[in-house]
């Protein structure tokens, strides 16, 4: 069956130029411009941002390590406990969260969160043994920003210094 279209429309300012050989992510994922920028480690592989990952990277020899920056819902406490649950660890109360190590991030004092063991990310993925988490969570105005590194325990440990430098480099986009 042959179909002929006779409709036309004007090009709008919202139309983006056609990109030949675009990936599925580039064609179909809902991406947004990141409100933050940072200086990632030279050996981290940059991945496209997504609706939920403002900045997105892969690291490590296993190919399963990832680092990403997100804007999250809830409070710092809510996000700390959500991450800890992914590693089957007990919830912290506000006093315990306040006692966590602090680092400067985006003009605020972020809490540094670490966990290791069995990682259940959710989203239909199976639990993975021997994983670790290192990351930061900060409230900036009404927004919660997170930097999360997750991957095999030894690879996360080897990247912690690079992660700390990345967190320190984060800034609001101009």
Strand order of the largest sheet: 2-3-4-8-7-6-5
- Indicate the structural class: alpha+beta
End-to-end gap? 51 Å
Helix count equals 4
| Count of the separate structural domains | 1
Q: List segments where confidence is low: pLDDT < 50 over at least 5 consecutive residues.
A: none
Shape: globular
The residue-averaged pLDDT reads 91
At the fold tier of CATH, the topology name is: Jelly Rolls
- The CATH level-2 architecture is identified as Sandwich
SSE run: HEEEEHHEEEEHE
* Helix content, binned percent: 10-25%
Radius of gyration: 19 Å
Just give the CATH class: Mainly Beta
Reported for the largest beta sheet, the result is: 7 strands, antiparallel
Strand percentage, roughly? 25-35%
Number of strands: 9
Q: Which oligomeric form is depicted?
A: single chain
Quick summary:
This protein is α+β, with helices and mostly antiparallel strands. The chain has helices at 24-28, 76-85, 94-98, 153-169; strands spanning 36-37, 45-47, 55-59, 65-72, 102-105, 108-119, 128-140, 143-152, 171-172. It has four helices and nine strands; from the N terminus they run αββββααββββαβ.
